[in-house]
Amino acid sequence: MKQYRRNIVFIVAGIVFYLLWSNGGEPVYGRLVKTGVEKFTTKVSKIESVRLEYMKAENKTMLFFKYPDRTTKIALEYCLPIVLLLAWHLSLYFDRRISAKVASKLLLYNFLIVYFIQLMFPLLLYNISQSKMKSMGLFIGLQVFGFLVFFLILKDSFIIKYKYSQLANEPN
């Protein structure tokens, strides 16, 4: 019963962040991913350059990865689970069992994990794009981010429940 406020914040924040994503946030986050790929992933891979472009025909923002022998594209929708992660972490600031410092630390760790894996995802595209099962492999790869965010939320829930709930219930 104590967590009603946090749960309501989570639902409302999820809706608000999704609306922000749909109304201009997607290309903003796309530039963040593009910059990360340019600064980090291109240094450890065969990706030569990255381009972010809105495709009117498909009504999607796409990332284009230039490899030595071809260019591969992927819709920026693979980054959408970040909306759920941000909504979750905003709601943690309303959880009485943890401090704002702990909520910020969890946000930092989880965001860096998801962001790093999103930067590494284009490395999979090179091999997937050479495969006959490209669409299936790409579909499975895109679903990984939703599951990853789900498991990070579960991890945080267990940490809060078993580590911080006991501390909050201890007598002073």
Characteristics:
mainly alpha, 3-stranded antiparallel beta sheet, 3 strands
Oligomer: single chain
Largest sheet: 3 strands, antiparallel
What gyration radius follows from the Cα positions, in whole Å?
19 Å
**Low confidence ranges:** none
Strand order, largest beta sheet:
1-2-3
Mean pLDDT over the residues: 84
Q: Shape from CA axes?
A: elongated
Instruction: Give the strand content.
Output: 5-15%
What is the rounded distance between the termini? Answer: 24 Å
For the record, the count of structural domains works out to 1
Overview of this protein structure:
The protein is mainly α and 172 residues long. It has one domain (4-156). The chain has helices at residues 4-39, 81-92, 100-128, 134-169, and strands spanning 49-55, 60-66, 71-75. The protein has a three-stranded antiparallel sheet, with helices on one face. α2 runs antiparallel to α3 and α2 (81-92) packs parallel to α4 (134-169). The chain is elongated.
